[in-house]
Amino acid sequence: MGLMDVLLKYVRKNVSVKVALLLTPPLIFLAVWFYAPFLIVGLYSFDMINIYREITFTPSLVHYSRVLSWTGASGIFLRSLYFAGINVLLCLLLGYPVAYYISFKVKKYKDVYIILFIIPFWVSFLIRTYAMMGLLDERSFFNTILLSLAIIDSPIKIMYTDVAVILVMVYDYLVMMVLPLYANLEKLDKTLLEAASTLGAGPVRTFLKVTLPLSMPGIMAGFLLVFIPSVGEFVIPELVGGPSNYMVGNIIYEIFMGARHWWVGSALSMLFIAFILSLVIIYIRGVGERGLAI
Amino acid sequence: MKVIRSFLKIFTVMVFLFLYSPIIAMVIFSFNESKSLAVFTNFSLKWYEKVIANPEVWRALYNSFWVGAVVTIISLILGLMMAMAVTRYSFTGKTILESFILIPIIIPEIAEALSLMMMYIFLNIPLGPVTVIIGHIAFDISFVTVVMRARMVGYDKSIEEAARTLGANELQTFFRITLPTLYPAILAAGLLAFTLSFDDLIKTLFTTGPGFKTLPLVIWSYAARGGVSPELNSLSSFALSISFLFAIFRLRAERRMGR
Amino acid sequence: MVNRRDVFKVAVAGVLGLAIGGVGGYISRQGEMESLKKEVVELSKQLGVAAPKLEPNLNIYNWTYYINRNIVDWWAKENGVQIVYDTFESLDEVVAKLQTGTSGYDLAVVSDSPLQELANLGVLEPIDLRKIPNFKYVPDRFKNPRYDPGNKYSVIYSYGTTGLGWNNEEVSPEVTAWADVFEVDRHLGKYKGKITMHSDSVETYGAALIYLGRDPNSTKDEDLREAIELLKKQKPYLAGYASTEEYMAGLEAGRFLISHAYNGDIAGLMYASDEREITISKKLEHISYTVPEEGALAWADNFVIPKGAKNIEAAHAFINFILDPIVSAICTITVKYPFPAGRDYVPEEIRSDPVIFTPEELLGKLYWTRPLTPEERAKRAEYWLELMAA
């Protein structure tokens, strides 16, 4: 029995060693290239790295207090929450009926319908956003049609407004609401609905008392998948919005790239990340681990 | 009943229209002869000619592909290791580990991208294709792990044990039994990883170096500066067709695998 | 399992294809480089001139639309240099990159005030004027500038002012002052929704502070507070805050009637020229540019060599090339910004156009920016963000 055989035997017997061997490379990679960067951000935020990129061991909360005392900061945070909130609501309002229709009312070719729904989302986020820009532009055919039908008498100028940002957000995120909803609705036990109608409940009551509550996990999953990323959205306000519609992501970009104040920018980023994480924690506490099984 | 059904049907159709019209409009107008976004004058390929004649586009396309390939391979390897550890064994700290795996998915992309850029600069690492690749992998590993884990649930280890009793060693078992059985999971995760890397914008934007552009970066620089334009319509339609091909490929692969 | 093997085969074929294509492309490009180099060496031998020993790669970072690309490509081929030419639309981008000290660029163009900042941070390589014999063609007033005494780190590229570009057909009366875009009873109210200010906060702060009669570089709370209040009042009347590409497109299309703009951008709209023919044809008569009577910001862009540049020889050679009077003239005609070394060689029309070559009389009304510390910038940024959030 050589050394190799002894080692192999040890490895085989010992689960922890196996696990350690399997986990080490990926964890090291993540530790270095995902978590360490946030450590650097943290150091900057606590003023522990100076302008010559040396680490100083004098932590300070000066940058945090600066962010928190901004009169403009809270406005932008609120606006981000507001946009993300409306985005989720609209996605729900638009997405639920579609998911419901395909799941309940379509007899044959359900798969086809769902795939047809997903097809626009095979295109990348960026291209979808750009396509929407084409429609929202003043000179688009959408405006021309409305003009010629005399529904409006001057082109709708939506670009660079709040409406544009929200509209494009809904367009980009809709699928993230519909898919979990659809999956949930599909898994529903249809016999429950039959039971409800046998007991005399009309379609509306059946929906409100049976379907809706049972689809809550799907709604919650959709909420998570839409709300959390949209709060930090950067691309959409940059492309279809202007400085008046900036969200937290854009402000962070401005501070890093424009003011080049890495310290305040880091403090803001840390606060933002903490905010997002707490939202997720609240979600988990409220919904349970099931919600994360996407 | 009938009324509700019709309402739902119309509603669904309208939503579908909403989803398709921007994209279809973009593709149609990419073939428009005039610069107009409103009136289709004549069928013309001239904008496509411009796009195809632009070497920047080809270089970006090439970069997107090979970066995607490298990212996919490495993410698959690392993700598979993580997924195997998590599904086959139970150990202390497993739940914490699972949260750690999910964090990259939750954190806003711009925070990730900026932090990575700051670290590269702090360590004096010059930005370029390598830094881009690393950034993509750090993000993709989590997705790969989640997808693979979902498909590995219920994996039966008894075949492996049988192979072992028949005399196969670790390596042989892995390559002859485990890997082929996991093939659908690997394919799904791999295609996802590739798509995420190919379409990535924000991380790439902050971690790329001089002259190194990917396709989304090219589209972004034109869109952010000049807004809507016929050339960009053609470029985007072109990129769209690539995504489509990939998606169809993915769909057929999944069909064959029987999900 | 036939299907799986097919998929596998396709994947392998794809990867192999990419690899072969990539390697093939690389090899053929190297081959091209080699043969070009050989040609250059041969030619030099025939002329009895020492062949330039230039490294093959040169990474340049410059403003958009700021050079004649054909001339650049020609130079690249002549010298066997492979050029990577990246562009930026805002000063913040180039400064952010150069500040790191590992930008990867061999040559960049930055404006005067960030230049001082970067020099102080130690992220610029010194320039060896002995390698730039054409420096002698630069007019004296652009040599030895106050922002870089002795031209230690920079060589003049171009210069200009930031004022108001406007549509003289649709807008009346004439635009003459910042007051026109800050006071509602003047152009601001009349052309609501068709006016843009600059997206660079330094420029827009500058305009507001100059209008208020303050120092455009001020970081005093009272000044910034007043400026932001003024800007907030102006904001609802604006179409937005636009940068070069945006306002050039907007003015041309008629979506914007008055834009806070760089002089050369407006000149670029007024004249057209073909990059190959180097001829001028007046394109748009209805666009004008004015330096507001209260004053305006002036700036000078300069070549710099970032720290960590790998090809310093070629960077110097390129600078020298651009400073050749003919080449400078060509660039002036193409981009409509003045390249000082070529002034005597541009057509009279361009030389005497006040939009391109800022007249001496105006110099008294011009302000220069000064570099700010991160703290000062952060303070300005706070107020600016307040404006953005409004």
Write a brief structural summary.
The complex is a heterotrimer of chains A (294), B (259) and C (390). By secondary structure, chain B is mainly alpha-helical.
Summarize the topology.
The complex is a heterotrimer of chains A (294), B (259) and C (390).
Chain A lengths: L2 H11 L1 H31 L16 H7 L2 H35 L4 H9 L6 H12 L4 H8 L13 H26 L2 H9 L4 H12 L1 H16 L3 H6 L7 H11 L3 H26 L7
Chain B lengths: L1 H29 L15 H8 L1 H34 L5 H13 L2 H14 L6 H24 L5 H8 L4 H12 L1 H17 L2 H6 L7 H12 L3 H28 L2
Chain C lengths: L1 H46 L9 E7 L5 H11 L2 E7 L2 H9 L7 E5 H10 L2 E2 L28 E14 L11 H4 L1 H7 L4 E4 L2 H11 L9 H14 L3 E5 L1 H10 L4 E5 H8 E3 L6 E3 L4 E4 L5 E11 L5 H11 L2 H11 L12 H4 L14 E3 L5 H16 L1
Parallel strand pairs in C: 1-2, 1-3, 6-7, 6-8, 12-13
Antiparallel strand pairs in C: 3-12, 4-12, 5-8, 5-11, 5-12, 9-10
Helix pairs in contact in C: 8-14
Helical residues, percent of chain B? over 70%
- List how many beta strands of chain B DSSP finds: 0
| Share of residues in strands of chain B | under 5%
Helical/strand content category of chain A: mainly alpha
CATH C-level label of chain B: Mainly Alpha
Number of helices of chain B: 12
Approximate shape of chain A: globular
CATH superfamily of chain B: MetI-like
Instruction: Please give the most extensive interface between any two protein chains, plus how many residues each contributes.
Output: A-B, 83 and 81 residues
Tally of individual helices of chain A: 14
Characterize the largest beta sheet of chain A: strand count, sense, and whether it forms a barrel. Answer: none
**Average pLDDT over all residues of chain B:** 85
Labels describing this entry:
heterotrimer, A: 294 residues, mainly alpha, 14 helices, B: 259 residues, MetI-like fold
Description of the structure:
The complex is a heterotrimer of chains A (294), B (259) and C (390). Chain A is an all-alpha fold. Chain A has helices at residues 3-13, 15-45, 62-68, 71-105, 110-118, 125-136, 141-148, 162-187, 190-198, 203-214, 216-231, 235-240, 248-258, 262-287. The longest helix of chain A has 35 residues, at 71-105. The two termini of chain A are 48 Å apart. The longest helix of chain B has 34 residues, at 55-88. In chain B, α9 runs antiparallel to α12 (230-257). Chain B is mainly alpha-helical. Chain B has helices at 2-30, 46-53, 55-88, 94-106, 109-122, 129-152, 158-165, 170-181, 183-199, 202-207, 215-226, 230-257. In chain C, the strands form 2 sheets. In chain C, strands 1, 2, 3, 4, 5, 6, 7, 8, 11, 12 and 13 form an 11-stranded mixed β-sheet that branches. Chain C has a two-stranded antiparallel ribbon with strand order 9-10. In chain C, β9 and β10 (280-282) form a beta hairpin. The N and C termini of chain C lie far apart (62 Å). Chains A and B meet through α2, α4, α5, α6 and α7 of A and α1, α3, α4, α5 and α6 of B.
